[in-house]
Design goal:
Structural class: alpha/beta
Strand content: 15-25%
CATH architecture of the largest domain: Alpha-Beta Complex
CATH class of the largest domain: Alpha Beta
Number of helices: 12
Number of domains: 2
Oligomer: single chain
Shape: globular
Helix content: 40-55%
Radius of gyration: 21 Å
CATH superfamily of the largest domain: Spore Coat Polysaccharide Biosynthesis Protein SpsA, Chain A
Distance between the termini: 31 Å
């Protein structure tokens, strides 16, 4: 069984900063709410302007995304930066959109983030430094929560949902979420691109193939940080965890990994009874004394809600036939 020890967490005696050419690829679908903030963050990167291009791939948006991207192209040009608006309209999938960006990219390194993320100014500069080690093929940065206003956002922040620490500890192979990952462009030549018809789980799949089939090592760079919005409604939270369950099922069918243990009815009943009889009264006393807040009172029921959604997503999902297909740099391959 492969082990997560393949992760290199830090580089001894790190040499001076280096700046390979980089293509930053962002898939976008109906991103009008978060896109302006992302664009500001990209244009505010400390990376040398002549060493980076930003490829924003519209995946068939039907909101104001195309207009925002057109404006961003002009704004970047005025600032001496290269930002290109690309389109992927054949397949509705973030992974297909990323493949479109990969095929158009000119950089030695391909960095990925998402439309609802906000990279810190030194994100890209810090993310690529791990490639100074020749056997490192992918670098993973950290994902932290944007300051939350709702109790659901604060719950996700307490649980460190989206942190790369969890995915890097996966017992099969470590992996990073594509909200904050960079890959050597040449690595795709051997292992192929993202599976374009996958709708979830493609992050793990590409990282595992890079390590298993490509022989590359993974480097974790905690100082390469992007901020991410957490879900603000129960419906959004349910969809997120249901998708995690689907991802488990898909990766089980493709790679043979173990399925996540399902939530059993008796476990849910016991946990709720314990919450009502012990945790809630104790939490209320702490709240009255000023030693807790409302989020502390609902941690257990929200956790069960998420666990249930993941269980159903895993139970009810089956990998679509075309989702096993791997795309290649040359689409005719």
């Amino acid at each position: 069984m492969p082990q997560a020890s393949m992760v290199t967490h830090k580089m001894p005696d790190r040499p001076p900063l280096f700046f390979p050419t980089v293509s930053v690829i962002v898939p976008i679908y109906n991103g009008e709410t978060d896109l302006p903030g992302l664009i500001d963050c990209l244009l505010g990167q400390t990376y040398p302007a002549d060493r980076v291009e930003y490829l924003l791939v519209d995946n068939g948006s039907c909101d104001r995304t195309p207009e925002i991207l057109q404006s961003a192209v002009a704004k970047a040009k005025a600032a001496g930066l290269t930002l290109k608006q690309l389109h992927e309209t054949t397949i509705q999938s973030a992974y297909a959109a990323r493949n479109t960006g990969i095929r158009a990219a000119a950089g030695e390194i391909l960095a990925f983030t998402d439309a609802d993320c906000y990279p810190e100014p030194t994100w890209l500069q810090n993310l690529v430094q791990g490639f100074q080690t020749s056997d490192v093929g992918l670098c993973v940065g950290e994902i932290v929560a944007l300051p939350g206003k709702t109790w659901l956002e604060r719950y996700a922040e307490r649980k460190n949902i989206m942190s790369q620490q969890d995915t890097l500890a996966h017992p099969f192979y470590p992996y990073g979420q594509t909200a904050n990952v960079a890959v050597r462009a040449c690595a795709f030549e051997k292992i192929g691109l993202f599976r374009p018809h996958m709708t979830t789980g493609g992050d793990a799949d590409i990282c595992w193939r890079l390590q298993r089939d490509g022989g590359w090592q993974l480097h974790y760079e905690k100082t390469a940080v992007v901020q991410h919005h957490h879900r603000t409604t129960l419906k959004e939270l349910y969809k997120q965890w249901y998708r995690y369950g689907r991802s488990n099922r898909y990766l089980h069918q493709i790679h043979g990994i173990k399925l996540t243990r399902p939530l059993m009815g008796h476990e849910a009943r016991y946990s709720l009874a314990r919450w009502l009889g012990k945790e809630l009264p104790s939490g209320l006393l702490k709240l009255l004394r000023g030693n807790a807040d409302l989020v502390d009172l609902v941690m257990t029921p929200i956790g069960l809600y998420c666990f249930r959604a993941r269980t159903l997503g895993q139970r009810e999902s089956r990998l679509p036939d075309k989702a096993t297909e791997i795309a290649w740099l040359d689409p005719t391959d």
